[in-house]
UniProtKB/TrEMBL annotation, chains A, B:
This is Homoserine kinase. Residues 75-149 form the GHMP kinase N-terminal domain. ATP binds at P90, F91, G92, S93, G94, L95, G96, S97, S98, A99, A100. GO terms for molecular function: homoserine kinase activity. NCBIfam families: PRK01212.1-4, thrB. Coiled coil: none annotated. The gene is thrB. Catalyzes the ATP-dependent phosphorylation of L-homoserine to L-homoserine phosphate. HAMAP family: Homoser_kinase. It comes from Agaribacillus aureus.
Length: 309, 309
């Protein structure tokens, strides 16, 4: 194999009560990467599309190529490689854009090298790439993009990542309003301490959400999708959040929350039709305050990255 | 029916990371109650055994009779009732002693009245009885004693209680050292705020523990049984805690922690033989510092209260 094209999915992290520990992959949007081996040694970025000129072409600054370089160092291969990155999702959107690029890169190079490492082993290289973009490696974006499904980060130190069983017909709808929130800013407005009462309520909900997902209890999933700690603070950066969320719940969403650090908002539902209806009412709400938006509806993506050619 | 004898099980609450939200029932020890209808109206306590004379015989002060009185008021029955309570577990032990009495009382009276209420409906009466003993109604003791099994209290307001699927062969060992910790004191030494980092680690572990239990992943259960917030503080009230815990883990325990607010300590394991071995080494550790102790080994009790005669 001297060329490969890979798709890696967008992800929803900070799933309501599961701040920093729960994320899931969707079927679209996502990023595409093409890797081509060449005679001249070293890794070069030949093209980046869909980034409106905002991403660096320097290989040591781009999330995709950082993960590739780390991988190549680890497996001790010194090859010539041309990289073509096609960003097919909005930037700074809370959909794990940098994580998807990083995952696409490391998954593609591992395929090109004949799968020298397992998916689990790839995780640390993908995380390292993502760390450059956001200052910290968000495993709750990177892990679901790489592994597919609904993923729990039980621990960051040591890293302990678990794929959670979920109901077959769980659908996600994501709305991306055309505004931007910087991840670092969104983290900086968070408090350093939480009242023990709020923390207990939060871990009760985390327990409920995991129990609901693994035991196929949609009522429990719905009741557990609550975040009384971060959402009230972060949602202030998203105009119209309360109204959009209320409209989603009224349209039948199991629950609704900020995707990652926003401004995208996600909702879960039990059927494709309901998810589409929810998307429409959310879009209407944003339109009412003059904000354009884009909707993505899919099942939970269980596959993670896939080879396109 | 004019007489009934009921057993209600002891419980382990505050299961490691699941402070205030996770508890489970064991097969022994537990409390027994006998109710006999009589001609003279009103509820009277005829006998309390096993309490070393420490429990009040006043019906409005005893957890068992408070729950019975509240039940009778709710169902609008005015009967004559004699109550015989046999405490068959240590007092102030962290094994949900008051919860078991409360559950035994309300379960027994409901049987005697021809099951006017469902188990779910009984919960609030049992909680009310327990509230008198500890100042707050610990649903993570009361609910597993009443419902059996491993129980998640997702929320206290409104009360939302979920029975969690658990692996068939999950065994518990409990050791009760012959020292006493007052529940109110044990709560008072806890902080009012927690660092956000610790809280995130705790809810990651709660997610991991629930996922491990429902997905039959013993490794995950083991890794998730960690409490870096409360255990370091509360364990200071239990002499030898660190050594006892270390010995349990070395003997093959999946995990080990304080039962309720202590001083009892519990461990989980995958087999009866291992659980017994763990109990022996824990008992040896306490003996080395001159503390006598009592061991209880059983599977997770899935039944809750049972009618004995």
């Amino acid at each position: 194999m001297d060329s490969i094209k890979v798709f890696a999915p967008a992800t929803v992290a900070n799933v309501t009560c599961g701040f920093d520990i729960l994320g899931f992959a969707v079927e679209n949007p996502g990023d595409e990467i093409i890797l081509k081996t060449c005679k001249k040694p070293g890794v070069v970025i030949r093209e980046i599309k869909g980034d409106e000129g905002r991403l660096s072409h320097a290989v040591e600054e781009n999330t995709a190529t950082i993960s590739i370089l780390n991988y190549l160092t680890h497996v001790e291969r010194d090859i010539g490689l041309e990289v073509y990155l096609h960003k097919k999702m909005p930037f700074g959107s809370g959909l794990g854009s940098s994580a998807a690029s990083s995952v696409a890169g490391v998954f593609a190079i591992n395929q090109l090298m004949g799968q020298l490492l397992t998916t689990e082993e790839l995780l640390k290289f993908a995380l390292e790439g993502e760390r450059v973009a956001s200052g910290t490696g968000h495993a709750d974006n990177v892990a679901p993009s790489l592994m597919g499904g609904f993923v729990l980060i039980r621990s960051y130190d040591p890293l302990d990542v678990i794929k959670i069983n979920t109901p077959e017909n769980l659908h996600a709808v994501i709305i991306h309003p055309n505004i931007e929130v910087n991840t670092k800013d969104a983290r900086n407005i968070l408090k350093k301490n939480v009242p023990i009462k709020s923390a207990i309520r939060q871990w009760g909900n985390v327990g409920g959400l995991i129990a609901g997902l693994t035991m196929n209890d949609f009522g429990l999933i719905s009741r557990s999708m609550e975040d009384a700690i971060f959402e009230p603070v972060r949602s202030m950066l998203i105009p119209g959040f309360d109204q959009v969320k209320a409209s989603a719940l009224e349209a039948g969403a199991l629950g609704c929350g900020i995707s990652g650090s926003g401004p995208s908002i996600f909702a879960l539902s039990t059927a494709d039709g309901t998810a589409r209806k929810i998307g429409t009412v959310m879009k209407d709400q944003f339109a009412q305050i003059g904000i354009e938006s884009e909707i993505f509806v899919s099942k939970i993506n269980q596959k993670g990255p896939v080879i396109l050619d």
